[in-house]
Design goal:
Distance between the termini: 53 Å
Strand content: under 5%
Largest sheet: 2 strands, antiparallel
Strand order of the largest sheet: 1-2
Order of helices and strands: HHHHHEEHH
CATH superfamily: dinb family like domain
Number of strands: 2
Shape: globular
Number of domains: 1
Helix content: 55-70%
Length: 169
């Protein structure tokens, strides 16, 4: 095989190997799991319980979910999308819509991540410069923590959290 033919075949393979970086793939898998749980939780909670809060000092279920939806800011900075999402409405349809929209922005950030740019430093709000991958992993950790709170809200309303529901099957 001549060198030109070899390069013609090898270049796409190298790109595929970079796109399938195992660290990025594993981190994205964790993100996808928590994303699916949060969206399912928002969909499972009955409309009348969106204003529920376990104590007066805590946020309502809707406020917790819109807090998650505010992730569009950090994901948007990475994805190059500087859109705004209306998180001021607290009815179920608006909250679910804002949540899905924010995850679409995060999906774009994850989809654009690769071995070449994962360590690239970007402005992370008032926190200074952080790596693209570091921001996305931090966001996933934050979402996981919030899902833990949200699961309690669901249980207090006799709704089985999505992560527990899958284990029961």
């Amino acid at each position: 095989m001549n060198r030109v033919a070899f390069l013609f075949l090898a270049v796409p393979l190298v790109g595929t190997l970079y796109a399938q970086n195992p660290v990025i793939a594993e981190a994205k898998q964790q993100y996808t799991r928590v994303k699916d749980n949060l969206i399912a939780a928002a969909e499972k909670m009955p409309e009348q319980d969106y204003n529920f809060k376990p104590t007066d000092a805590q946020q309502t279920f809707a406020e917790r979910m819109t807090h998650v939806a505010n992730q569009y800011r950090s994901c948007g900075a990475i994805a190059g999308q500087h859109k705004t999402i209306d998180t001021s409405k607290r009815d179920k349809a608006s909250v679910v819509s804002a949540l899905k929209e924010s995850f679409a922005v995060c999906d774009a950030a994850w989809d654009g991540l690769n071995a070449q740019n994962a360590h690239e430093m970007v402005q992370a709000g008032r926190g200074g410069q952080r790596s693209r991958l570091g921001i996305l992993i931090g966001n996933t950790n934050h979402d996981s923590e919030l899902y833990g709170y949200i699961a309690v809200y669901l249980r207090l309303k006799n709704v089985v959290p999505p992560s527990s529901e899958r284990r029961m099957r």
